[in-house]
Structures are given as C-alpha cells and as structure tokens.
Amino acid sequence: MPKVRRSKKSPPSGWELIEPTLDELERKMREAEIESHEGKRKNEPLWSIFKIAHQKSKYVFDLFFRRKTISRELYDYCHTEKIADKNLIAKFKRKGYENLCCLSCIQSRDTNFGTTCICRVPKDKLEEGRIVECVHCGCRGCSG
C-alpha cells in the first residue's frame, strides 16, 4: 500500500489515528492519476483528482475545527507536508464556503464573464430540472 508522502521529520503524536484514512485517500489518488482518459472531455480526467484532494482537505479540516480531535501541531504538519490544501481550508472557515469544491470555482479570472463558477449558484436560483456541472472540477453544486 502506498504511504502518504512525508519528509524525514517524524510526525507528531496523533498521526497514527489519521494515517489509515490518509493512506486510503492517497491510494485512491494514485488510481485516479493512472486512470485512462480516453473518451473523456479535456478536463474530465482531473475531476476525480480534485474530488480526492477536496476529501483530504475536508477530512483534516473536520478533525481540527469541528471535532477537535487532532492537535495544532498535527494540523500544521499536514499543511507543511502538503497533505491538506491550506488555502482551501481557509475558505472552508468562511460563511458560504463550507462546501467549496475547489479554489478554481471562486476565481473570477477563470470564467468567461468575470464571475464565479456555475456550481456556486444556489440550486433554487436555477431553472427547474437543469443539471449544472462545473467545467473545472465536475462539481454539481457546492454553494449549499
């Protein structure tokens, strides 16, 4: 089983509690990276990678901020080892961004009209029965 990449520095206490879940997510990430992309649209092969990266960041965020089961030292270790995305977690803390799928959905420079991505529009504001899918990450609505 592939291990989560780490530096020579030994991990802080509590690492053994989160290591199995992070190893499983890392294994899924490696499978997503080598998955065939034939017959898919240009950005579609990246969608599963974005989804798994979101899961890892959300997992660390929930453990530290919601459940308070890991220490600040272990939380900082996850940032320095790039296990969790620091910028995405910073957005999770803000009101309205609790379910944000990726950072490219809120960057206005990546869209045609200088706004946020279509997945950030609340479902009740869209036409009835319309299926929305983000071009960047494949999200079907992360505004809440």
TrEMBL record:
InterPro entries for the chain: BUD31 (IPR001748), BUD31/G10-rel_CS (IPR018230)
Name of one Pfam family that matches: BUD31
Family named by the database record: Belongs to the BUD31 (G10) family.
Protein name (record): Protein BUD31 homolog
A GO cellular-component term linked to this record: spliceosomal complex
GO process annotations (BP): mRNA splicing, via spliceosome
KW NAD (keyword) present: no
Source organism: Zophobas morio
KW Nucleus (keyword) present: yes
Localisation per UniProt entry: Nucleus
Protein keywords: Nucleus
